[in-house]
Design goal:
Rossmann fold, Helicase, Ruva Protein, domain 3
Length: 286
C-alpha cells in the first residue's frame, strides 16, 4: 500500500485531538502543504533504503514524505504527545512496520540513534536550529548529508562565505563539517500557523578532510581548539585579531601576533575575513 501524506484539514484535526496548540516557545509551525514536504525530500535526494533522521517531526507531514520515498526514518521528538501519536499516524497512512522509529527526547541531549542514519532532513525551529545541527554533526559521524528548513536569517548565516555581512561563528562552525548552500525558499503560506518570517532550505554535505587538507575533520581536540578561537574572534568582531584573540593565544597582543604570523594570518585582519581553513591554521599554530 502506498504511503499517503497529511492534508491541512487532517493536520488541524490531529492537533485538536491531541490538544496541541503550536507554540512560539517551541518554534512550532506545522507544514500543511504536500508539495513542500515532497520538495524537501527531493532536494535531499532521499533514496529507497536510506536511513534518515528527522528532528522535530511534529504531526508527521515531512515524516510521511520521507517514508513515501521508501526510506526509513528515525524521528526525534521532544513533545511526548506528538511522539506517542506519530506511529499511529504513520500506520494509518500506509507506513510499513519497522520503517519508522520514534525517539521521545530532546534532540540536544540525544547521543545515540538506531541504525546509524546517513541523512538529516528536518524542519527546525529558529531558537534551536544551529545548536541542533552542530550537535548532530558532532555526535553522529554517520551523517553524510542533509537538507533542513530554517528561518531565512539562520539559513543565510549557515551558508554565508567569509566577508559576508551575516558571516559569523555559526558559519565557520558549520563549514568545519563541509560545504553548505542555500537550496530554495519556502513560502509562509505553507505553514500553520503562518509565521511572520521567511524560511529557506539549506543543504550540506560532510567532507572528511578540512579545506586545506591539514587534518581530518574528525580530530576532536583540533575542533574544540578551533571553535574556541572562532568564538573569541566573533565575540569582538570589530577588533583586529591580535586583540580579539589575545586571551586565547597567550594572553597578550604580542603573543597573539606571533601565533597569527606563524599561521600565515595577518594580525590586523578581523574574524569575518577568515575562512574555516584560516581558523584551523591558527589552531594548529598555537
Amino acid at each position: 500500500m502506498p504511503v499517503t501524506l497529511l492534508g491541512a484539514a487532517e493536520i488541524r484535526a490531529l492537533a485538536a485531538e491531541l490538544d496541541v496548540t503550536p507554540t512560539k516557545k517551541l518554534g512550532q509551525n506545522f507544514v500543511v502543504d504536500a508539495n513542500t514536504v515532497r520538495k524537501i525530500v527531493q532536494v535531499a535526494a532521499v533514496s529507497p533504503g536510506e536511513r534518515v533522521v528527522e528532528v522535530g517531526p511534529g504531526l508527521g507531514s515531512l515524516t510521511l514524505a520521507i517514508l513515501e520515498a521508501d526510506a526509513s526514518v528515525t524521528a526525534v521528538e521532544i513533545d511526548h504527545r506528538l511522539a506517542e501519536r506519530l506511529p499511529a499516524t504513520a500506520a494509518a497512512h500506509g507506513v510499513a512496520d519497522g520503517a519508522l522509529t520514534v525517539v521521545d527526547a530532546d534532540a540536544l541531549r540525544v547521543t545515540e540513534l538506531p541504525g546509524d542514519p546517513t541523512v538529516l532532513v528536518a524542519n527546525l525551529p529558529y531558537n534551536v536550529s544551529v545548536p541542533v545541527l552542530l550537535h548532530f554533526l558532532e555526535t553522529f559521524p554517520s551523517l553524510q548529508r542533509g537538507v533542513v528548513m530554517v528561518q531565512a536569517e539562520v539559513g543565510e548565516r549557515l551558508a554565508a562565505p567569509p566577508g559576508s555581512k551575516v558571516y559569523g561563528a555559526p558559519s565557520v562552525k558549520a563549514a568545519w563539517y563541509g560545504p553548505w548552500r542555500l537550496a530554495g525558499t519556502v513560502s509562509r503560506q505553507v505553514f500553520w500557523p503562518m509565521p511572520n518570517v521567511d524560511s529557506v532550505l539549506v543543504a550540506f554535505r560532510r567532507d572528511p578532510v578540512l579545506p586545506g587538507g591539514e587534518s581530518p575533520r574528525g580530530d576532536v581536540e583540533l575542533r574544540r581548539r578551533t571553535f574556541r578561537i572562532v568564538d573569541a574572534a566573533f565575540q569582538q568582531r570589530r577588533k583586529m585579531l591580535r586583540q580579539a584573540l589575545a586571551a586565547v593565544l597567550g594572553g597578550t597582543a604580542a603573543e597573539a601576533t606571533a601565533v597569527l604570523e606563524r599561521a600565515g594570518v595577518a594580525p590586523t585582519a578581523r574574524g569575518e575575513e577568515l575562512s574555516v581553513d584560516d581558523f584551523v591554521r591558527i589552531a594548529l599554530a598555537v
